[in-house]
Amino acid sequence: MIPAMSVRAIRGATQVESNTPEAIAAGTKELLAEILRANELPVEDVISVLLTATPDLTAAFPAAAAREVGFESTPLLCAVEIDVPGALPRVIRAMATVETPRSASEIAHIYLGGAKALRRDIAQ
Hints:
It is built from 2 helices and 5 strands; from the N terminus they run E-H-E-H-E-E-E. It is of the alpha/beta class and 124 residues long. Helix 1 (21-38) crosses helix 2. The chain is globular and about 50 Å long.
């Protein structure tokens, strides 16, 4: 029997070391890979991904890095986070819409590095 599939959203974030194309690419790739790994998802089950960056990250588009690791056919969108005073700097966030047999409570939301401070309640 094939398990029933549901549409779910998976959140995640990572803090990168610097505003360089290399740091933005590495952080984006690590975040997306961990979202897939932790939720046992193939890229084909990802419907779309919204990627945001804090206003201090301007050296590269996170979506460009996502395309390099298998998301070529996945709709991707980049946006800038609200510039809230005192907010954690150099953060890339992701919200992936996926098809999965997992229930909402079984979804693993991924917060890496300094971004763990954003969601201590669910960070790994």
